[in-house]
UniProtKB/TrEMBL annotation:
Its EC number is 3.5.1.-. This is PIG-L deacetylase family protein. Transmembrane segments: none annotated. The keyword Hydrolase applies. The keyword Transcription regulation does not apply.
Length: 236
């Protein structure tokens, strides 16, 4: 795994160490950007892992790999993320990569960071890279890993395009991101290569609309939605 990381400052004094895992640059902010900003604001140590290089399947230009990394670093700064880790596996080809190799990338960062809270892709995804990352996250955060909570996030233009013949993303937990929605939108805007015009799900208008919809379901102005994958508690 590429050891390149982005460091945004000293360790904070919060109770949790947070790791958000995404298959591609921008997945982390689309799925959990407001929540990551909230963690950072309360003093938690926040990390992001981008598993693939995020460009070769879309662009015939090697320089795009570094551009995506620069965008990921800029996005992290907006959210207050401390470090961005890059796995550098092939974009849109994780279904051709042996499962143990994807596991190794995720496990190495989990072992290094020692997170208490992990966010990852949902299993209900059109994108096969996302599903592969979910499977490897479940392996890397298995009981005994020290991870106390694993939550799966939705990814606009993937989770919502699954179709009626498959299991759908059904959130079981909502995070109030009312105070952090602007930070999420500004952070996503750093991904100039990934933003789209409305009504595409990866537009500013759509991101705000999704947050309002999830917020209405939870009784707040804006929210991000998650499925609880696993939680270990010392008390009931």
């Amino acid at each position: 795994m590429d050891s390149d990381t982005h460091t945004g400052g000293a360790k904070q004094s919060g109770d949790d160490t947070v790791l958000c895992i995404g298959a591609h640059p921008d997945d982390e902010v689309l799925g959990a950007g407001g929540t990551l900003a909230a963690h950072a604001a309360q003093g938690d140590e926040v990390h992001v892992l981008v598993v693939t290089e995020g460009s070769t399947a879309q662009y015939d230009d090697p320089s795009m790999v570094e551009q995506k990394r620069e965008e990921a670093r800029a996005c992290a700064d907006r959210l207050g993320v401390g470090e961005v880790h890059f796995g550098d596996l092939p974009d849109m080809r994780l279904d051709d990569v042996p499962h143990v190799e994807v596991n190794a990338v995720v496990e190495s960062v989990v072992e290094r960071v020692e997170p208490t809270v992990v966010y990852t892709h949902a299993r209900q995804e059109v994108n096969r890279d996302h599903r592969a990352v979910y499977d490897s996250t479940v392996v890397a955060t298995r009981p005994g890993s020290g991870v106390e909570r694993v939550l799966a996030y939705e990814t606009p233009s993937s989770t919502d395009w699954v179709g009626g013949g498959a299991d759908q993303f059904e959130p079981t937990l909502f995070v109030d991101v009312t105070d952090h929605l602007d930070a999420k939108v500004a952070a996503f805007a750093e991904y100039e290569s990934e933003t789209r015009a409305f009504p595409h799900p990866r537009s500013e208008e759509s991101l705000r609309a999704r947050a309002r919809t999830r917020g209405a379901a939870a009784g707040v102005a804006a929210a991000e939605a998650f499925c609880l994958v696993r939680e270990v508690r010392e008390t009931p």
